[in-house]
Amino acid sequence: MVRLDAQGLYYKDLNEKIHRLIAAGEREFMVENVNGQRYIGAALPEGIKMELHGTPGNDLACYMNGACLTVHGNAQDGTANTMSGGTLVVHGRSGDATGYAMRGGKVFIRDDVGYRVGIHMKEYQDLIPVIVVGGSAGSFFGEYMAGGRLIVLGLTGSRPLVGDYCGTGMHGGIMYLRGEVPG
Question: Is the pTM of this model over 0.85?
Answer without folding.
Answer: yes
